[in-house]
Amino acid sequence: MKLKLICLLAMITILVTACGNQVLVVRTPLEGDHYIRSNMESLNWQHFSDMIASDSDIKEEDFQKLKTTLEVNKKTSYIMVSNELYRFNTDGKMVYYTDWKEENGVYKLEELGFPNYDASGNME
Description:
Layout: H1 2-19, H2 29-39, H3 45-49, H4 60-72, E1 77-81, E2 84-88, E3 94-103, E4 106-113
Antiparallel strand pairs: 1-2, 2-3, 3-4
């Protein structure tokens, strides 16, 4: 009985420690967006850049702007069209949008955009 328990604990330990070393695999754009929003406080540019498509022009400044946007807009809603995801604040204004593409079976962030609003609050 003790041997079975020890073996079970050893297998659980191996399973748990091995999962910690696996690279994040994003299977859908919504999953990627959820991961970013849920982990933005602890996410750094180096880790975020691993989620960017190879031909993307997303820069560290975009990452910082996304970080600020998510700090200000804790509650959001979204609309998803194909691989594009649009995030809106509680007033219904778009705060950012993302476009994802599949690379080798993993979704990567291809575009990250922020709308421009004029002084009257209309999107330019």
